[in-house]
Design brief:
The structure is a homodimer. Chain A is an alpha/beta fold. Chain A contains 6 helices and 9 strands. The relative contact order of chain A is 0.24. Chains A and B meet through strand 8 of A and strand 8 of B.
Chain lengths: 215, 215
């Protein structure tokens, strides 16, 4: 059983973007940051539900597919679920739609945890809790039943788990663009490499995949 | 003729280190940052004068060797020459010793430019000037006689030339460690990739070589 996290970041370390507008709610920067990942066959099948067999099948796709393998439970921040978008609506079911691509228990960290779990037919169940990273991980580990636990995001949540020393394997896909602003994955993580073996691989797209693995 | 720069940086973008002590004037971080480069055969021969043929000969060495190819003139900041160490000594000849590894005119940018040029038998000549990046580049280009001009450093000087759009080819060797502090190469360079083709390559050492090239 391992605790894993995967993020797409820019060459200058940013894992979030800042150019959202009402007309373009993700912003152009987000599209550039994740272009190689969203072009993969895995993303198209697993996230978009596209069974046509399209999409890239190279190094980016191999890392993309690994993202979904052997996950027994996930932990995410409130923002990634969507709690920040409609904080006062107790019936808000997040922005993952009726086919959330998790297929396992998902622990949503929030200071307003008095929400009932939300279950979906595909095995996804969102559970809300107000807990430290270590407490949340204990619950997720038990729910995962021996499979891996994924720290899904966002970047603040991943950084908290990294700072607490709770992540066994961190994979980042580095897109060679400079965003210059946003949330920086690497802030306040001096010396993170200690205790990890770091390996890197360049994809056909130009994305550099860097993996920190324990042991 | 191209204007080029090469730097070693950490995964979080730092090109300088902060843990210097009187006992260890470079600091341990600097050693970790440049370990793969200083292990190359090229560094040992060209910088240390070691003709024994030792040192690595892989991807790091190929990039290291390219650093010295076809350079007709160099521009560096005052700090890299060593002016900041003994600012009040008009006879201070910098900390590059009597065999500076440049073998060409070196333009040292300083606000106290009333220093005579310093020439060495191996073709190195330090010239001191108070000039904008564009003015310095015009002089260096003329001195280079058709060969390339290298912006040698330090990181502030390279960033000034990048921000002014004056660099045709930037190579960074990214060591997969997080320094967390120092001077960050990528600060305030949002969108740098526009107008460049970016390619990456992973060395046997684990260093990721990223090159921004015009055209």
């Amino acid at each position: 059983m391992a605790v894993r996290a995967d993020l797409n970041i820019s060459l200058d370390g940013y894992a979030s973007t800042t150019d959202q507008t009402p007309e373009n709610p993700f912003g152009e920067d987000w599209g550039r940051l994740v272009a190689a990942y969203t072009a993969t066959r895995t993303f198209r099948e697993r996230v978009l539900g596209d069974r046509s067999g399209g999409g890239t099948t190279g190094v980016d796709d191999r890392h993309g597919a690994a993202y979904f393998e052997n996950i027994g439970a996930e932990i995410m921040g409130a923002g990634m679920f969507g709690l920040h978008d409609f904080p006062d609506d107790p019936d808000w079911r997040g922005w993952w739609g009726e086919e959330p691509p998790f297929h396992c228990p998902v622990f949503v960290l929030t200071h307003s945890a008095d929400r009932d779990p939300i279950s979906f037919a595909n095995g996804t169940e969102f559970r809300f809790l107000d807990a430290t990273p270590a407490e949340a991980l204990a619950l997720a580990t038990e729910a995962a039943g021996g499979a891996d636990v994924r720290i899904g995001g966002g970047v603040d949540t991943v950084r908290e788990f990294l700072a607490a020393g709770l992540i066994d394997r961190l994979h980042v896909g580095i897109t060679p663009i400079l965003l210059g602003r946003g949330k920086n994955l690497w802030a306040e993580l001096r010396g993170l490499e200690e205790g990890y073996t770091v390996t890197s691989e360049v994809a056909e797209s130009g994305v550099v995949h860097v993996t920190f693995a324990r042991g």
